Protein backbone atom coordinates (compact mmCIF):
# COMPACT_ATOMS: atom_id res chain seq x y z
CA UNK A 1 0.00 0.00 0.00
CA UNK A 2 1.30 3.47 -0.88
CA UNK A 3 1.65 5.62 2.24
CA UNK A 4 0.04 9.04 1.92
CA UNK A 5 0.60 11.02 5.07
CA UNK A 6 -1.66 13.90 4.07
CA UNK A 7 -4.57 11.45 4.11
CA UNK A 8 -3.49 10.16 7.50
CA UNK A 9 -3.30 13.69 8.89
CA UNK A 10 -6.77 14.41 7.50
CA UNK A 11 -8.04 11.25 9.21
CA UNK A 12 -6.70 12.45 12.58
CA UNK A 13 -8.09 15.95 12.03
CA UNK A 14 -11.60 14.59 11.44
CA UNK A 15 -11.35 12.74 14.77
CA UNK A 16 -10.02 15.80 16.61
CA UNK A 17 -12.66 18.16 15.21
CA UNK A 18 -15.54 15.68 15.35
CA UNK A 19 -16.68 16.02 11.75
CA UNK A 20 -15.78 16.70 8.14
CA UNK A 21 -16.97 20.33 8.09
CA UNK A 22 -14.88 21.33 11.10
CA UNK A 23 -11.87 19.43 9.73
CA UNK A 24 -12.19 21.28 6.43
CA UNK A 25 -12.19 24.63 8.26
CA UNK A 26 -9.12 23.62 10.27
CA UNK A 27 -7.21 22.43 7.20
CA UNK A 28 -8.28 25.35 5.02
CA UNK A 29 -10.05 23.35 2.31
CA UNK A 30 -13.59 22.50 1.24
CA UNK A 31 -15.71 19.74 2.73
CA UNK A 32 -15.80 18.05 -0.67
CA UNK A 33 -11.98 17.85 -0.55
CA UNK A 34 -12.18 16.17 2.86
CA UNK A 35 -14.85 13.76 1.60
CA UNK A 36 -12.71 12.85 -1.42
CA UNK A 37 -9.60 12.29 0.73
CA UNK A 38 -11.54 10.16 3.21
CA UNK A 39 -13.07 8.02 0.46
CA UNK A 40 -9.64 7.51 -1.11
CA UNK A 41 -8.24 6.40 2.24
CA UNK A 42 -11.17 4.04 2.87
CA UNK A 43 -10.69 2.57 -0.61
CA UNK A 44 -7.02 1.91 0.19
CA UNK A 45 -7.82 0.21 3.49
CA UNK A 46 -10.85 -1.61 2.16
CA UNK A 47 -13.23 -0.67 4.96
CA UNK A 48 -15.25 2.27 6.29
CA UNK A 49 -13.52 4.49 8.84
CA UNK A 50 -16.38 6.72 10.00
CA UNK A 51 -20.12 6.50 10.42
CA UNK A 52 -21.56 9.89 9.58
CA UNK A 53 -24.72 11.44 11.01
CA UNK A 54 -26.28 14.74 12.03
CA UNK A 55 -24.00 15.07 15.05
CA UNK A 56 -20.79 14.56 13.09
CA UNK A 57 -18.48 11.68 12.25
CA UNK A 58 -17.86 8.76 14.62
CA UNK A 59 -15.15 6.14 14.22
CA UNK A 60 -16.24 2.67 13.19
CA UNK A 61 -14.74 -0.33 15.03
CA UNK A 62 -12.36 -0.73 12.09
CA UNK A 63 -11.43 2.94 12.40
CA UNK A 64 -10.63 2.49 16.09
CA UNK A 65 -8.49 -0.54 15.26
CA UNK A 66 -6.39 1.34 12.70
CA UNK A 67 -6.10 4.59 14.74
CA UNK A 68 -2.87 3.83 16.71
CA UNK A 69 -1.08 2.79 13.53
CA UNK A 70 -2.13 5.97 11.72
CA UNK A 71 -0.88 8.06 14.67
CA UNK A 72 2.45 6.23 14.56
CA UNK A 73 2.84 6.83 10.81
CA UNK A 74 2.05 10.55 11.15
CA UNK A 75 4.48 10.96 14.06
CA UNK A 76 7.19 9.09 12.17
CA UNK A 77 6.69 11.33 9.14
CA UNK A 78 6.86 14.49 11.27
CA UNK A 79 10.03 13.26 12.95
CA UNK A 80 11.58 12.48 9.58
CA UNK A 81 10.70 15.92 8.24
CA UNK A 82 12.06 17.56 11.37
CA UNK A 83 15.41 15.74 11.13
CA UNK A 84 15.64 16.54 7.42
CA UNK A 85 14.93 20.20 8.19
CA UNK A 86 17.58 20.18 10.93
CA UNK A 87 20.18 18.81 8.52
CA UNK A 88 19.24 21.34 5.84
CA UNK A 89 19.25 24.29 8.26
CA UNK A 90 22.66 23.41 9.67
CA UNK A 91 23.98 23.80 6.17
CA UNK A 92 22.04 26.97 5.37
CA UNK A 93 22.13 28.72 8.76
CA UNK A 94 18.33 28.95 8.89
CA UNK A 95 16.36 29.46 12.10
CA UNK A 96 12.60 28.89 12.23
CA UNK A 97 10.89 31.45 14.48
CA UNK A 98 7.25 31.48 15.57
CA UNK A 99 5.60 34.60 16.96
CA UNK A 100 2.16 36.07 17.58
CA UNK A 101 1.14 39.44 16.14
CA UNK A 102 2.43 41.92 18.71
CA UNK A 103 5.91 40.35 18.74
CA UNK A 104 5.99 39.94 14.96
CA UNK A 105 5.19 43.62 14.43
CA UNK A 106 6.98 45.34 17.31
CA UNK A 107 9.99 43.13 18.12
CA UNK A 108 10.99 40.80 15.31
CA UNK A 109 12.04 43.40 12.71
CA UNK A 110 14.45 45.01 15.17
CA UNK A 111 15.69 41.69 16.56
CA UNK A 112 16.40 40.17 13.16
CA UNK A 113 17.97 43.33 11.74
CA UNK A 114 20.35 43.63 14.70
CA UNK A 115 21.13 39.89 14.77
CA UNK A 116 21.98 39.70 11.08
CA UNK A 117 24.46 42.55 11.42
CA UNK A 118 26.46 40.33 13.76
CA UNK A 119 25.60 37.06 11.95
CA UNK A 120 25.13 37.98 8.26
CA UNK A 121 24.98 34.35 7.12
CA UNK A 122 21.86 33.55 9.16
CA UNK A 123 18.51 33.20 7.41
CA UNK A 124 15.14 33.18 9.12
CA UNK A 125 11.87 31.45 8.34
CA UNK A 126 9.05 33.19 10.19
CA UNK A 127 5.73 31.65 11.23
CA UNK A 128 2.83 33.74 12.52
CA UNK A 129 -0.26 32.76 14.46
CA UNK A 130 -1.97 32.98 17.82
CA UNK A 131 -1.00 31.41 21.16
CA UNK A 132 -2.61 28.10 20.17
CA UNK A 133 -0.72 28.07 16.87
CA UNK A 134 2.62 28.50 18.65
CA UNK A 135 1.88 25.54 20.94
CA UNK A 136 0.76 23.41 17.99
CA UNK A 137 3.77 24.19 15.78
CA UNK A 138 6.18 23.53 18.64
CA UNK A 139 4.51 20.17 19.17
CA UNK A 140 4.82 19.39 15.47
CA UNK A 141 8.58 20.16 15.46
CA UNK A 142 8.07 22.99 12.99
CA UNK A 143 9.87 25.69 15.03
CA UNK A 144 13.34 26.16 16.47
CA UNK A 145 12.19 28.92 18.82
CA UNK A 146 8.79 30.44 19.55
CA UNK A 147 7.47 33.38 21.50
CA UNK A 148 4.82 32.07 23.91
CA UNK A 149 2.77 33.27 26.86
CA UNK A 150 2.34 29.91 28.60
CA UNK A 151 4.05 29.23 31.93
CA UNK A 152 5.37 26.01 30.42
CA UNK A 153 5.72 24.39 27.02
CA UNK A 154 6.17 20.63 26.76
CA UNK A 155 9.72 19.62 25.92
CA UNK A 156 10.97 23.23 25.87
CA UNK A 157 13.25 25.47 27.85
CA UNK A 158 11.50 28.76 28.64
CA UNK A 159 13.37 32.07 28.76
CA UNK A 160 11.21 34.74 30.41
CA UNK A 161 11.45 37.99 28.48
CA UNK A 162 8.82 40.55 29.45
CA UNK A 163 5.76 41.23 31.60
CA UNK A 164 3.29 42.85 29.24
CA UNK A 165 0.46 44.74 31.00
CA UNK A 166 -3.12 44.05 29.96
CA UNK A 167 -4.92 47.31 29.25
CA UNK A 168 -8.54 48.39 28.90
CA UNK A 169 -9.20 49.81 25.43
CA UNK A 170 -12.24 52.09 25.22
CA UNK A 171 -13.81 54.45 22.69
CA UNK A 172 -12.43 57.93 23.34
CA UNK A 173 -15.92 59.23 24.24
CA UNK A 174 -16.80 56.39 26.63
CA UNK A 175 -17.87 57.48 30.17
CA UNK A 176 -14.96 55.52 31.68
CA UNK A 177 -12.41 57.18 29.39
CA UNK A 178 -11.82 60.02 31.87
CA UNK A 179 -10.82 57.64 34.68
CA UNK A 180 -7.19 56.94 35.63
CA UNK A 181 -7.78 53.17 35.61
CA UNK A 182 -10.53 50.64 35.03
CA UNK A 183 -11.76 47.89 37.32
CA UNK A 184 -12.86 44.68 35.63
CA UNK A 185 -16.14 44.95 37.52
CA UNK A 186 -16.79 48.26 35.74
CA UNK A 187 -17.03 46.30 32.47
CA UNK A 188 -19.90 44.10 33.61
CA UNK A 189 -22.65 44.45 31.00
CA UNK A 190 -20.44 46.33 28.53
CA UNK A 191 -20.18 45.09 24.94
CA UNK A 192 -16.86 43.26 24.72
CA UNK A 193 -14.81 42.73 21.55
CA UNK A 194 -12.19 39.99 21.67
CA UNK A 195 -10.33 37.23 19.89
CA UNK A 196 -11.86 33.73 19.59
CA UNK A 197 -11.65 31.66 22.78
CA UNK A 198 -8.84 29.45 21.43
CA UNK A 199 -6.69 32.55 20.82
CA UNK A 200 -7.54 34.79 23.77
CA UNK A 201 -6.34 33.86 27.24
CA UNK A 202 -5.55 37.41 28.35
CA UNK A 203 -8.99 39.03 28.68
CA UNK A 204 -10.75 35.85 29.78
CA UNK A 205 -8.32 35.44 32.69
CA UNK A 206 -9.18 38.98 33.84
CA UNK A 207 -12.92 38.31 33.68
CA UNK A 208 -12.56 34.95 35.44
CA UNK A 209 -10.70 36.61 38.32
CA UNK A 210 -13.44 39.24 38.49
CA UNK A 211 -16.03 36.48 38.81
CA UNK A 212 -18.37 37.18 35.91
CA UNK A 213 -18.99 36.21 32.31
CA UNK A 214 -18.28 39.06 29.87
CA UNK A 215 -20.92 40.18 27.38
CA UNK A 216 -18.95 39.21 24.26
CA UNK A 217 -20.68 40.81 21.27
CA UNK A 218 -17.96 40.53 18.62
CA UNK A 219 -15.03 38.19 17.98
CA UNK A 220 -12.39 38.43 15.26
CA UNK A 221 -9.03 36.80 14.56
CA UNK A 222 -7.51 40.18 13.60
CA UNK A 223 -5.96 42.01 16.59
CA UNK A 224 -5.91 45.36 14.83
CA UNK A 225 -9.51 44.99 13.65
CA UNK A 226 -10.43 44.93 17.36
CA UNK A 227 -8.80 48.33 17.87
CA UNK A 228 -10.65 49.73 14.86
CA UNK A 229 -13.96 48.35 16.16
CA UNK A 230 -13.38 49.91 19.57
CA UNK A 231 -12.56 53.23 17.88
CA UNK A 232 -15.85 52.93 16.00
CA UNK A 233 -17.76 52.69 19.27
CA UNK A 234 -18.79 49.04 18.95
CA UNK A 235 -17.51 48.02 22.36
CA UNK A 236 -14.58 47.68 24.75
CA UNK A 237 -11.62 45.31 24.71
CA UNK A 238 -8.78 44.14 26.95
CA UNK A 239 -5.48 43.94 25.09
CA UNK A 240 -1.74 43.66 25.86
CA UNK A 241 0.13 46.94 25.85
CA UNK A 242 2.71 45.71 23.32
CA UNK A 243 -0.07 45.11 20.81
CA UNK A 244 -1.26 48.69 21.23
CA UNK A 245 2.13 50.25 20.54
CA UNK A 246 1.63 53.16 18.11
CA UNK A 247 -2.05 52.30 17.59
CA UNK A 248 -3.87 54.39 20.20
CA UNK A 249 -5.61 56.81 17.81
CA UNK A 250 -9.30 57.39 18.57
CA UNK A 251 -9.24 55.04 21.55
CA UNK A 252 -8.46 55.50 25.23
CA UNK A 253 -5.99 53.02 26.76
CA UNK A 254 -6.15 52.67 30.54
CA UNK A 255 -4.47 50.33 33.06
CA UNK A 256 -6.50 47.78 34.95
CA UNK A 257 -7.06 47.92 38.69
CA UNK A 258 -5.81 45.53 39.99
CA UNK A 259 -3.15 45.19 37.31
CA UNK A 260 -2.99 42.15 35.06
CA UNK A 261 -0.31 41.05 32.61
CA UNK A 262 0.87 38.30 30.29
CA UNK A 263 4.36 36.84 30.53
CA UNK A 264 6.12 36.72 27.16
CA UNK A 265 8.74 33.96 27.04
CA UNK A 266 10.93 32.40 24.39
CA UNK A 267 10.41 28.64 24.09
CA UNK A 268 13.39 26.63 22.85
CA UNK A 269 12.62 22.94 22.17
CA UNK A 270 15.02 20.45 23.74
CA UNK A 271 16.00 19.12 20.30
CA UNK A 272 17.15 22.67 19.32
CA UNK A 273 19.27 23.31 22.40
CA UNK A 274 22.37 21.65 20.93
CA UNK A 275 22.27 23.96 17.92
CA UNK A 276 24.88 26.69 18.29
CA UNK A 277 22.91 29.01 15.99
CA UNK A 278 19.68 28.60 17.96
CA UNK A 279 21.41 29.00 21.33
CA UNK A 280 23.13 32.18 20.18
CA UNK A 281 19.90 33.59 18.78
CA UNK A 282 17.95 32.81 21.98
CA UNK A 283 20.58 34.55 24.11
CA UNK A 284 20.57 37.52 21.72
CA UNK A 285 16.76 37.84 21.94
CA UNK A 286 16.86 37.87 25.74
CA UNK A 287 19.51 40.61 25.74
CA UNK A 288 17.70 42.65 23.06
CA UNK A 289 14.44 42.64 24.99
CA UNK A 290 16.24 43.49 28.23
CA UNK A 291 17.87 46.52 26.61
Task: Describe, in short, the structure shown.
The chain is α/β, with parallel strands linked by helices and 291 residues long. It has helices at 5-17, 20-27, 31-45, 61-92, 101-106, 108-118, 131-139, 202-210, 223-231, 276-290; strands at residues 50-53, 56-59, 94-99, 123-128, 145-148, 156-171, 191-194, 215-219, 237-240, 251-255, 261-269. Helix 1 (5-17) crosses helix 2 (20-27), helix 1 packs across helix 3 and helix 2 crosses helix 3.
Describe what you observe in this structure.
This protein is α/β, with parallel strands linked by helices and 291 residues long. It has three domains: 79 residues, Arc Repressor Mutant, subunit A (Orthogonal Bundle); 96 residues, Periplasmic binding protein-like II (D-Maltodextrin-Binding Protein, domain 2, 3-Layer(aba) Sandwich), CATH 3.40.190; 97 residues, Periplasmic binding protein-like II (D-Maltodextrin-Binding Protein, domain 2). The chain has ten helices and eleven strands. The strands form three sheets. Strands 3, 4, 5, 6, 9, 10 and 11 form a seven-stranded mixed sheet that branches. A two-stranded antiparallel sheet has the order 1-2. A two-stranded parallel ribbon has the order 7-8. A hairpin with a 2-residue loop joins strand 1 and strand 2. Helix 1 crosses helix 3. It starts with a helix and ends with a helix.
Amino acid sequence: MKINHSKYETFLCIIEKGGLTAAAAELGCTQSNITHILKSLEDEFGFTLFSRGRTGAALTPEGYAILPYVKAEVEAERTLRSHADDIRRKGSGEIRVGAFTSVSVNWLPGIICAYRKAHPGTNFKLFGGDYHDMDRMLGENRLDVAFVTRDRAAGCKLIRLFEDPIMAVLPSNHPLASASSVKAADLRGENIICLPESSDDDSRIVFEKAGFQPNIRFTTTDDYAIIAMVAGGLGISLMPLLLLSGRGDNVKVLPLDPPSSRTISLAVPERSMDSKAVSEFAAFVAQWVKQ
